[in-house]
Design goal:
Length: 711
């Protein structure tokens, strides 16, 4: 690449090279074609050297062409923003006024400034100054108005606290809770998928057990017309809920005849979740209920629905139109013309307005689904407020949204065009990964005052006491790959702004932040998370010493961990012991025979080190002491799950999350990374009905042992 192309790319926060791998790092120099692709995505020309020169000149002038930027994100200790004024304006003096965002009640505040640079633009001399507000401002969003002799200029000032909201353990030293996949909760009363009533009942169980937190998979809405695309990490909107979690029998105006007993019984008999059967039965019933509810014009329920719609700032309407259009396409069996596709390819397309007018009832139905889902989750949130749970729900925010989503369809210029987020090559995926997720354009995001990001944070903090931010490194940089290529690069975000926004929303919503930070992590990023009081995941299988085998002792765990044995991407304990995921990878040809053999050999070593760690901590239950070495995995040691739970309960980490699967000896994998439909991901149910969980011997024994160290 030429030095000018490299300079332009780096000024636009496009990485020209990056490293990956563990141990001996491999460095990739990004190709010119990829750099030009992303540069032009950011709105700058780069086809040839002349284009690049003009783009650099344009970029150099950009800051001098406006008085203030759209937003300044600062913290309570340093409320500084910059200002470009004509020399005469500066000599005449200026006044800084501040109002809480949207209030219009401005007050003049004390401020001081320092000159940083001067530039002649045309015939006028301009001065760039740094302005610091010296008065205290509470963390919040403010409208700022600067008055000069030539006019008034406005911007937004986001004033963040120094760190995210602190965990309140209500006097306890260390707490514990459950990590569950809501869809996998099994009960006698649900329709084949866990629902919000199951969650409400789990809250009661958690409270009785002494637990303080319930960790959940992402609850975001998926594609209702293709229910088998079930990954909760590839939603059609991170702003709204998945209606499959609605307990239909708890919806006002429900009648017994709405229940398709045959479909539901068939779905519940199946070993794995049949999303098509369940979603079909629920949508059919909910349509009947909606038609009934609409006829009762004076009902309180209908008035609440109308109020819900009034609070929409546009995203709900866009989601409902998107779903109605996709449903119409589904009804046509996808046999649609090129003209049809063009008419509806984005929210700005020619046919959308006409479609909206012609399909009001269908659009209203999709809005109704969101209203009822939110109403039922709100009930769970209210129950938690009245309970003894100190944290309550611990929700999960995916790193991105499906490119084929309402969010991208509704506002495509907010996203980097013709590309999607993924992961660079690593030891597990030598060719990298294409996730097919839309990625924010960092410059456009800032021009929107980060509002799209803020709305997503608020939607997922709703009714939650903690939020897990999936792939939190994505707030600093995302690996993005062009649709028509296999090689990509990192696009950098303003990590200081993003972290301050996260801290501010955490503080305003009283929501603890947990960052999933496993993978290709830049040097110093962990320290940044620590400074912001962002908790990390402390996973047993990842918490090892430098040899890659020896497990860290409980005393070596970080206090700021939400600790657990594994994650949804890792096999449950019993499956791990027998190497079930290795067998799956081999059966799907994701591992060669040799790789599988090496995997089993490595697992033998891991088993030995796990047994040694459990012995050293003396955590085997008194009546189930270890009987042998089980070196070759020829048997599953009785009591090992109790020993491991006690081991994790002993860690210094403030929070320990118990995956219920491990108490119940589940051997099925929840998700096998690197697969989609090849493996039945996101379809595993718990083997015990929720109504019987508290009497299950595995549950009882493990909870009692955990409570010894979590008080």
């Amino acid at each position: 690449m030429t030095s000018l192309l490299k300079e332009l790319a780096e000024k636009l926060n496009i990485s020209t090279c990056f490293s990956y791998g563990s141990g001996e790092l491999k460095t990739v120099n990004v190709g010119d074609d990829e750099l030009r692709f992303f540069i032009e995505n950011m709105g700058y020309k780069a086809k040839n050297e002349e284009d690049v020169k003009h783009s650099l000149e344009r970029l150099d002038k950009k800051r001098w062409q406006r008085v203030m930027e759209a937003i300044y994100v600062v913290n309570v200790n340093d409320k500084t923003f910059d200002l470009v004024l004509k020399e005469s304006e500066l000599e005449d003096g200026f006044e800084v006024c501040v109002a809480l965002e949207g209030s219009k009640k401005y007050k003049t505040v004390e401020a001081e400034y320092s000159e940083t640079e001067r530039r002649l633009e045309g015939k006028s001399q301009y001065v760039l100054v740094n302005v610091t507000i010296t008065e205290d401002l509470e963390p919040n969003y403010y409208d700022v108005m600067v008055k000069t002799s030539l006019g008034e200029y406005k911007t937004v000032l986001a004033v963040a606290p120094l760190e995210c909201y602190r965990l309140d353990k209500k006097g306890k030293e260390k707490i514990f809770g459950f990590a569950v996949q809501l869809y996998g909760l099994k009960s006698k009363r649900n329709w084949g998928v866990g629902d919000f009533s199951d969650l409400e009942n789990l809250v009661k169980i958690a409270e009785k057990s002494g637990a303080d937190v319930i960790g959940l998979n992402p609850l975001n809405v998926l594609n209702l017309d293709y229910p088998e695309t079930a990954s909760p990490y590839s939603s059609i909107s991170r702003l709204f809920l998945n209606p499959i979690y609605i307990d239909v029998e708890k919806v006002p105006y429900y009648e017994a005849g709405d229940k398709d007993e045959k479909a539901i019984n068939e779905a519940k008999k199946k070993e794995k979740i049949d999303y098509t059967l369940v979603m079909g039965a629920k949508l059919k019933a909910l349509k009947n209920i909606f038609e009934r509810a609409k006829k009762d014009k004076d009902s309180k329920y209908l008035k609440e629905f109308e109020e819900f719609k009034k609070n929409d700032s546009g995203e709900l309407n866009r989601l409902a139109i998107f779903q109605a259009i996709r449903h119409d396409r589904f009804l046509q069996n996808e046999n649609v013309s090129k003209e049809w596709v063009k008419a509806y390819e984005s929210a700005l397309s020619s046919g959308v307005e006409k479609f909206e007018k012609a399909h009001k009832d269908e659009i209203e139905f999709f809005k109704f689904l969101q209203f009822e889902a939110d109403r039922q989750l709100k009930i769970v949130g209210e129950k938690i407020k009245k309970s003894k749970l100190s944290v309550g729900l611990y929700r999960d925010l995916p790193v991105g949204v499906s490119k084929d989503s309402a969010e991208v369809w509704g506002d495509k210029y907010l996203y980097v065009q013709g590309s999607g987020a993924g992961a660079p090559p690593d030891n597990y995926f030598p060719t990298g990964q294409k996730w097919g997720l839309g990625a924010f354009n960092p410059f456009e995001l800032k021009e929107r005052c980060y509002k799209p990001f803020i709305r997503i944070l608020r939607a997922n903090m709703r009714y939650a006491g903690a939020l897990r931010v999936d792939h939190v490194m994505g707030m600093a940089r995302l690996y993005i790959i062009p649709d028509e290529g296999k090689d990509g690069t990192y696009i950098r975000y303003n990590v200081k702004d993003m972290m301050n926004i996260l801290a501010l929303e955490s503080w305003l919503n009283k929501c603890v932040i947990v960052g999933e930070c496993i993978g290709n992590v830049e040097s110093g990023f962990d320290e940044m998370l620590k400074q912001k009081n962002i908790y990390l995941l402390g996973v047993l299988w990842s918490e090892r010493h430098l040899d890659g085998l020896t497990l860290k002792k409980p005393s070596e765990y970080d206090r700021r961990y939400f600790a657990s044995i594994g994650t949804h991407d890792m096999p449950p304990l019993k499956a791990w012991w027998f190497g079930k995921e290795i067998a799956c990878m081999r059966s799907l040809n994701l591992f060669t025979e040799e790789e599988a053999r090496n995997g089993y050999k490595w697992r033998e070593k891991e088993r030995i080190h796990l047994l040694k760690a459990l012995d050293e901590e003396n955590v085997w239950p008194e009546d189930r002491k270890r009987q042998g070495d089980y070196i070759y995995g020829e048997n599953y040691p009785e009591g090992i799950e109790e020993a491991v739970h006690q081991y994790m309960a002993k860690t210094k980490s403030e929070v320990f999350l118990i995956e219920i699967e491990n108490m119940l000896h589940v051997q099925c994998l929840q998700n096998l990374p690197g697969t989609d439909m090849e493996h039945p991901n996101w379809r595993t149910r718990l083997p015990v009905d929720l109504e019987n969980l508290e009497t299950d011997i595995g549950y009882k024994r493990n909870i009692e042992l955990v409570k010894r160290y979590r008080k």
